Amino acid sequence: QCEKNGDVKKRRSNQADIGDNLRQEAEACYRLRLPEDFYQFWKFCKELDPEKPSDALMSSVGLKLVGPYDILAGKHKKAKSTDLDFNLHWRFFYDPPEFQTILVGDSKTQYHMGYFRDVPDELPVWVGANEAKKGCVITQVGDNVFAAVKLFLSKNLKEVTDKKKNAILKDIDEKLTRTAKELGYSLEQKTMKMKQRDKKVVTKAFHGAGLVVPVDKNDVGYRELPETNANLKKICKAIVDAPTDDERLKAFAPIQEMLTFVQFANDECDYGMGYELGMDLFCYGSHYFHKMVGQLLPLAYTLLKRNLFAEIIQSHLASRREDKVDQLAP
Q1: pTM here?
Q2: Residue 9 scores a pLDDT above 90
């Protein structure tokens, strides 16, 4: 299924003892590098439940390890389908290409956490969370998976009244905190590294996670959209709510005009503008925008040399689902 790549790296002292073949397989399936905390967290869950590490936090915390963790668990070997697309594995309705799901929670709200990368060949900038049934907003929950789960646990602990359940959660919380400290992972929701990344954000975009594009000293790289987020949402709403196709065509006029601006911007190397418009239309979520998103985002990603993201958005638009996002489901 997944090609092996790269040579075996030397073990560092803080490296989880997970075989190189398995590491290479997980990273080759997604064509994304995974940070060390990803593997350390698997090891942590293996200590909690050696039989089923993926479910180690399920009954207590309500989180299941998915996505690239399915590869560590060997689930992809049992898969029926041969045309597995890892670009879409656990990719929820509003997940942009930058987002890679690693944990899922309450299926009613489709709560899930994932690594967020600005560039496909770099390591994630932080872990984010989204509830797909509520909308496109992505919140930052830490710069590693331990911090993200610790935050989730703390919220749970505040709400649990049952003494027995509370004791179980406290126990996991203590083990997790201890392991993270031993490994040197920060448990803050917002680390210095994350604040530095925030400074590079050129615009928040509808999902709130922010978009990062290189901007040179002459300010080339990004130009603002002519509409505020609030206005752009009103324009989108008018298009989606239009009573007739004729009205809808008219309502599209401001966006058509913006497309012209984006062409000018791309000609002058301000690739961030088309990226922002494409992302906002994707986040708005209506199929009426899929064609435009399909024109804007793959081009923006290609111009920004983020080719894997261009491929992911194309796969996602071709099969954008509100459920059944587990590609390995029987």
Answers
A1: 0.94
A2: no
